[in-house]
Write a structure and sequence with these properties.
heterodimer, A: alpha/beta, globular, B: 362 residues, two-stranded antiparallel sheet, 13 helices
């Protein structure tokens, strides 16, 4: 039974059809990577799954209910979202920002666990040491980790992460996706937009490859990440190899001599 | 994980205690400062009444026979007919304007939003001036306040829809909207002065300069419920305003009904501005200076920012008004002029500071 389901979703933004008849179902315990070239509709699909984007047709259901119709507070207890850009208009401290993730549980019995959950989320994302720092003074990667801690603190059965690793160094990329996978194993449905296909191959249970607003392929990394398909979708030759048992996706690069070769 | 959680929880708890202490300290300190300022302001003027006599007079009215009564034969009358209503209006206007400033900054995600700067005060004043000139009294003694509320509401909505685009407020657009609005309202006020009679003209001048001269208990009776209702509403919205700092989308993701919250804030800002502007005219920069100083002291959390701004604004205006009527013998300086005199340079400083520290602006 899928926790999160998009069926026949089409979205137009400014006259352009960004998503066309997209179907995606995610069950609890599963980590799904959304991949695809720039402008393929990954962020829009994530926005649609989050209930942010108005759909032109189709529907998105969270736990069987339409995401657009549920009250914001109720929705916030079902899904947490990490956006690509994390801004903050005032100088709140990191610990306060993480605590903002607990606000959907305000005035519920769950609120008793606030301190504990905030502390553990900060530990998992390695931002303990930043607790008293002011958010707008952080680096891009530190902001991303703080925001991820806030999303974890929300403790929702659905996690939607939009390029969470973009600003992170290798260590924190791996750590973040490991936490995301652990969260999935604990029963949450996790959807992650990823540009790095090798990361997607290493951590995702399923990869949903989007191309020009349509689902080009949806399946295990082995099934989806084939050189032929990726080369066609990305319009660039791509090779897929295996290093220590895991898939590594690399673009085929023209050699320097060939580039310089004058006929 | 298992190691970090209890340690983190302990650290959090200690920070929580420290924060609670800071909260009590700041609010207590400001509350005490307000009491001192009120006693001081009530005692000084053309006729000086000793502070002990001011306190004594109040206690006697409350039915407690403690402390001396004013020794001057006119003392008691001066205190209760002139000083106390004026001091009460100053405190109310200060609290209302500072709270309105804090709310606007929260909802625009921008430290430069303030009823005076963005033109909401002058919009409210224009509506009030229209009532003065036309002599409408459709709502009795509430007519001016009601007109100011509607004027403030319309201008806030106008500012909001003009300056906000795609969930963001550009600083430049916000300030330019204020410039445009202030130009329009000045034109409106100039027109009203042109068509109005001598008395209306004087009243309008009083509006634009801002003054608490001639405050009466009747005014306080209209202003106090408006300001009180606005303050309570502001306190109730404080928690959600914190979340708005995340940006519209992220705020929605943590459960804030952003559009509804915005609408409520706009109504409350108009209410608070009307409470202040109805009887005291345009007093600019209070809503800019006070919340900013509180943020420097206590951080940006609205649960502390809103009550501390209200108290701080009250202290500031009570003292500013004391200065306005005692700085020059037998003259009552316009209060709005004084706050602008201090607030203007502060605005400069704020602009420079915000340019240096990236991330302070939305």
């Amino acid at each position: 039974m899928s926790v999160l389901r998009a069926s026949g979703v089409s979205v137009r933004l400014g006259g352009a059809e960004v998503l066309r008849d997209v179907d995606l179902a995610v069950t609890g315990g599963e980590l799904v990577a959304l991949a695809g070239p720039n402008g393929a509709g990954k962020s829009t699909l994530l926005g649609a799954l989050a209930g942010d984007v108005a759909l032109d047709s189709g529907e998105v259901t969270l736990d069987g209910r339409g995401a657009q119709t549920v009250a914001p507070t109720v929705l916030a207890r079902q899904r947490a979202v990490l956006l690509q850009q994390q801004g903050l208009s005032f100088g709140f401290r990191v610990a306060d920002v993480v605590r903002m993730g607990r606000s959907p549980w305000h005035r519920t019995p769950e609120a008793d666990r606030d301190d504990e959950v905030v502390a553990s989320a900060m530990g998992l994302t390695d931002v303990d040491a930043l607790a008293d720092r002011v958010f707008p003074t952080l680096s891009g990667g530190e902001r991303a980790r703080t925001s991820f801690a806030r999303v974890l603190a929300q403790e929702t059965p659905v996690l939607l992460l939009d390029e969470p690793t973009a600003a992170l160094d290798i260590r924190h990329q791996e750590a973040l996706l490991a936490v995301a996978r652990t969260t999935a194993r604990a029963g949450s449905a996790v959807v992650v937009v990823l540009h790095d296909l090798s990361l997607a191959a290493a951590y995702a249970d399923r990869v949903c490859l989007l191309d020009a607003g349509r689902v080009a392929a949806d399946g295990t990394p082995e099934e989806v990440l084939t050189p032929e398909r990726l080369s066609a979708v990305y319009e660039h030759p791509v090779s897929v190899t295996r290093v220590d048992g895991s898939l590594v996706v690399v673009p085929v690069r023209a050699r320097a001599e060939e580039d310089l070769c004058v006929p | 994980m298992t190691l970090t959680a209890p340690l983190g929880a302990r650290l959090d708890q200690r920070a929580g205690v420290r924060r609670a202490a800071a909260r009590v300290g700041l609010l207590g300190g400001l509350g005490a400062a307000l009491l001192v300022a009120v006693v001081l302001a009530a005692g000084h003027g053309q006729l000086d009444v000793a502070s002990t006599e001011v306190v004594g007079s109040v206690l006697h009215r409350l039915g407690i026979d403690l402390g001396p009564l004013p020794s001057h034969p006119q003392g008691e009358t001066t205190l209760w007919q002139v000083r106390f209503p004026r001091v009460a209006m100053a405190a109310l206007a200060g609290a209302a304007l500072a709270t309105a400033g804090a709310l606007m900054q929260g909802v625009f995600g921008n430290p430069l939003a303030e009823p005076g700067v963005v033109g909401v005060s002058s919009g409210a004043a224009l509506a009030a001036a229209t009532v003065i000139v036309t002599g409408w009294t459709f709502a009795g003694s509430w007519t001016i306040a009601l007109a100011a509320f509607v004027g403030g509401l319309l201008t806030t909505v106008l500012v909001y829809t003009t300056a906000r685009d795609g969930g963001r407020t550009e600083v430049v657009t916000l300030v330019l909207t204020g410039v445009a609005l202030n130009a329009m309202t000045s034109a409106g006020l100039a027109f009203l002065m042109f068509v109005g009679d001598q008395q209306a003209r004087e009243e309008i001048v009083f509006w634009t300069l801002g003054s608490l001269n001639g405050s009466r208990w009747e005014y306080v009776a209209v202003s106090a419920p408006l300001a009180g209702a606005g303050l309570v509403a502001a306190l109730l919205m404080a928690r959600q305003l914190d979340l708005l700092a995340l940006g519209d989308r992220a705020a929605r993701h943590v459960g804030v009904d952003v559009e509804r919250l915005r609408l409520r804030v706009i109504v409350v800002v108009a209410l608070l501005t009307a409470a202040a502007v109805s009887f005291s005219g345009i007093i600019a920069f209070v809503g800019l200076v006070v919340p900013h100083l509180v943020r420097l002291l206590a951080g940006p959390g609205h649960r502390l920012l809103v009550p501390a701004s209200a108290l701080g604004g009250a202290v500031l205006l009570v003292l500013a008004d004391l200065w306005a009527r005692t700085a020059v013998d037998y003259a009552d300086l316009p209060l709005g002029m004084l706050t602008a005199l201090v607030g203007g340079p502060f605005f400069f400083w704020l602009i420079r500071r915000a340019r240096r520290t990236a991330g302070g602006w939305a």
